[in-house]
Amino acid sequence: MSHKHPTFLRRARLAPLAAAAALIAATSGVALAQSNGSAPVAGPSANQTSNGVVNAQNSSNAQYTNFPSNGVVNGNGVDALAIGNQHRLATGAAAALTINNQPLTQPTVDIAQQVSGTVISTTSGLIGVNAANVIGNHDGDTASVSNNEATSTAIGSTAVGTMQITGTAVDMSTPATAAVSQTATGAVFGTTSLTQVGIRLNQTGGANPANAMDNLGLSVSGNQIDASAQANTTQAGIQVQGSSVNVGADASSTVDQVATGPVFGISSVGNLLGIRVQGTPNQPMTDSTLSVSGNQVQASAGGNQQTSNLQITASGDVVQAPGTVLATTATQGNGGVVIASGSATTLGIDNQKPGSANNSYSVAGNSVSAQADGNSGSNRTAVAAAGSIDGAVLETTNSQTLVSPVVTAGASVLSLGVQTLDSSNDTMSVSGNLVQAQAQGSSASNQTRAGASNIAGSLATTANTQVNAGGAVSAGAGAARIGSSSTSLSGSSLTVSGNQVSAEATAASATNDAQLGADNTVTQSAAVVMNTQGHATGPVEASASSNLVGAATTSATNATLVVSGNQFSASAASQKADNLARINATNGVVDSGAIVVNVQDHQAGNVGATVADFINVSPSPQPAPMLIGLRADTASGASLTVTGNQGASDAIVNQANNQVSMAGSRIDGSSAAILYNAQNVSSGNAQSLTWVNLGVDGNTVADTTRAGGHELVVSNNQFSANASQNQAVNSLEMNAVSTLGTGGLQPALLGSVQTSAGDTSATTRMDILSGNSVATDASGNTTITGNQASSMARANVANNQLTLAAGTQASDQFALLANTQGNVGAVTSTTSLLAGGSAANRLDGNITTTGNQALAVAAGNTSLNSVQVGAGTALNSGSGVGLLNAQANSGNVLATATLNADGFSRGSSLNLSGNTASATAVGNNAENVVNVSALPGQQMASAQLTSTQINSGNVSAVVSGSYSASGVPSTSGINVSGNRSSAVAIGNRATSSMTLGVQ
């Protein structure tokens, strides 16, 4: 058995963890240089400085001021663009520097931009039909407002710094450099503020029967209201293409960006986005079709944004001289406030006529969104050859620093849907609308890739570093009301379905990969990913909110209401990473390695996520339940169905998905796969809250009176809260179609370390027919079934999978999985599901409360560790397999679940069955599995499994379940069966299994 060091480790030269960033790109302008002759070309440079105020304003109206019989407002644009510095390409130019079929003499693109003055872009006005004095007969008239656009764009500096080199046989004998440097210290403001986008009809002239307003066809669709503000944005890179490429000198694409001024992107429609009908004549609007669909309000704000790409493509071979590097490097630093805000006061239909009858209303597919980024970048270094790649050294290095005091995104709508006074026999649909906010301190996508027939002596390295030195990152998305608001509903139907409210806040996120792929073989090469993320201080918060999803009215009579499939999500994370190192060779891998190293360190700052309503109480908003269903004083006849709605709040401090993969027909020599994950939280709490009220509720403090056989179904709704300090999914795989490990020791090492000191809490509250949601008069059937409220709080979570597989035999394998976890913070999980049914809210009809669940799980440390080693024939001597698990918890762990499924009936039947309340609390939890298999008599590997757990914190599980049924003597049948309450508290729990045997 050989004990030599793997060749790739002897020769690897890992790049320092360096810099990152820059921006999007302009698409027209001046090409710096182009050559098609024989003389050498050294590329140009550009330097731009902007110190004064740059201001673009557009105040315009595109409108009708009367109501024509068939009015159309279509395809209008109201735009404003302000740029401090712009370096752009001429129309048709492929790059800033283009070199075709000639020798290279230090080709260079060098762009430097500085902006210190304020850059302002403002768009305002009105788009649509704005008829303030509608008289006469408009029976059957139509109006359409569609595909109009209002935008404002403000950019500090924007640049394209690219190079394109083409030829038959390209000889890169001198260095090639593309570099962009940008500094922005001035303020950048982009604002789009419109008072109206849509149709407003104000009927005048008194109650004259000749002033008809029936059979209308009104549509507002596909309009776009945007605001964008960006301090620095750039596109850089080098593209090389030839039949063969010889790399005899370094080639680099470099971006350096600094932004310190405030950046605001604000997009709003202050009065109306949609349709409003109003007026003095005392006549209802009838038999009309009104639609508001596919409209967008978008806002974005960013400090630094960049894309950088170094790509070599050859139809033959690519050969790189020793000591040379192909590198993409980006550095970004942001210290300014970044705010993005998208809003609409009324999005939908507002019928203020005295009555509404037999109308069809639809509000569908509209969106209000906001995106805020401190730093964002996309970097790629790649070589693709139809022949061979020899000696390539590829490096992608990204560095991002955030010191901005605030990066925040807010998306809000006051009223999303339909508003009427008295509604009779109307059909209303509010579906597929989106309110979304996303805020990211720093985000990056980094790739290093090589693909060829054969790859030899090559190294692909991706290194990412992100630091939050003191910024608060927040995202809030809210719609005060989604659905309808009417004085009264009589015989009308309303469907509120498929709407989404989502918010995501992340201080740092990265997607990193290094990949080598060959149709034939990969020899003496390595793919390496190194990710380092640090959070010094600053909170990270996300909230998704609504006061009401459904219908609000004083009275609902014979109205059919369905609220289904709506989704609410809030996700907050300090640091997120997806890391992948992969080597894949069809005919085999020899003396090569794949490595992922992930390090995440959070020093201070809370991470919080909330799905609920918010009450504005000084000094800060306080959470309150979000009502999903009907708010009314009386509900008589017909039905309300609340089904399939979902909500989740997720607060995770450090989150990682790490993968190492090596595959081929054979994996020989001293090949290795290594994965190391280290996550730490020194202080800072992870807190998640989800709070909803399902069913019917009264206005203000009044109770809802259900009468006249009103049917109610609340079913299959799922709401959850999840919180963790550290979460990781680690996967390492070596997979050979035939042999694994011929000719040398092959280590497969997976190590994960997680430590946490902050508190972790997750809370879910689900109220059904609770609080003011009561019935005090004769009502129809009430069904509450299949609803689930759950919470999960776990300080450290690891899912570790190590897999070795050989189609025939495996030799000299050393497979080790080691998991270490330590927690000292308190962990609390709380779930409450209250389905009100006491004597105070007696119900007639059949009452069914079945299959509802209240689940709470709390754990200090939890891990799933699996080692799978399999050989088709023999697993030869010299191989060893090990699994080591060590967990220590000293924090108090508490899980609490409450389920109240009481019912009181004044008649008919009452069924309380199959409801579950469960609380599980564990100090340390581990599932350890080792499976080693080969043909009978051919398994000669040693194997070891060791698990150590120490718990010194208090572990408590508390359950409160109430399944009480009662009724007046006339109640025909009462069934209480199959309900279950369970409380489980365990200090240490481990399931360990080892299987050594035949396949």
Helices, by number, come to: 1
The helix-and-strand class reads: mainly beta
**Spatial strand sequence of the major β-sheet:** 2-7-11-15-21-27-32-36-42-50-56-60-64-69
Task: Tell me how many strands there are.
Answer: 73
Unreliably modeled segments: 1-40
Fraction of residues in H or I helices: under 10%
Work out the radius of gyration.
32 Å
Identify the overall geometry.
Answer: globular
N/C terminus separation: 25 Å
Overall mean pLDDT stands at 90
Instruction: Report the major sheet.
Output: 14 strands, parallel
Roughly what fraction of the amino acids lie in strands?
over 45%
Descriptive report:
- By secondary structure, the protein is mostly beta strands.
- The protein contains one helix and 73 strands.
- The strands form five sheets. A 14-stranded parallel beta sheet has the order 2-7-11-15-21-27-32-36-42-50-56-60-64-69, with no helix packed on it. Strands 4-9-13-18-24-30-34-39-47-53-58-62-67-72 form a 14-stranded parallel beta sheet, with no helix packed on it.
- β43 and β44 form a beta hairpin.
- The longest helix is centred in the first third of the chain and has 5 residues.
- It starts with 6 loop residues before the first helix and ends with a strand.
- The N terminus is likely disordered.
Topology record:
Layout: H1 7-11, E1 33-35, E2 45-50, E3 54-64, E4 70-74, E5 77-87, E6 97-100, E7 108-115, E8 119-134, E9 142-146, E10 149-172, E11 176-184, E12 188-203, E13 217-221, E14 224-247, E15 251-259, E16 263-279, E17 285-286, E18 289-293, E19 296-314, E20 318-320, E21 326-334, E22 338-351, E23 355-357, E24 360-364, E25 367-385, E26 388-390, E27 393-402, E28 406-419, E29 422-424, E30 427-431, E31 434-456, E32 459-468, E33 472-490, E34 493-497, E35 500-523, E36 526-535, E37 540-545, E38 548-557, E39 560-564, E40 567-585, E41 589-590, E42 593-602, E43 607-615, E44 622-624, E45 626-631, E46 634-636, E47 639-643, E48 646-664, E49 667-668, E50 672-681, E51 686-697, E52 705-707, E53 711-715, E54 718-736, E55 740-742, E56 746-756, E57 760-768, E58 782-785, E59 788-806, E60 813-823, E61 827-835, E62 847-850, E63 853-871, E64 880-889, E65 893-900, E66 903-905, E67 909-913, E68 916-934, E69 942-951, E70 955-962, E71 965-967, E72 973-977, E73 980-998
Parallel strand pairs: 1-6, 2-7, 3-8, 4-9, 5-10, 6-10, 7-11, 8-12, 9-13, 10-14, 11-15, 12-16, 13-18, 14-19, 14-20, 15-21, 16-22, 17-23, 18-24, 19-25, 20-26, 21-27, 22-28, 23-29, 24-30, 25-31, 26-31, 27-32, 28-33, 29-33, 30-34, 31-35, 32-36, 33-37, 33-38, 34-39, 35-40, 35-41, 36-42, 37-43, ...
Antiparallel strand pairs: 43-44
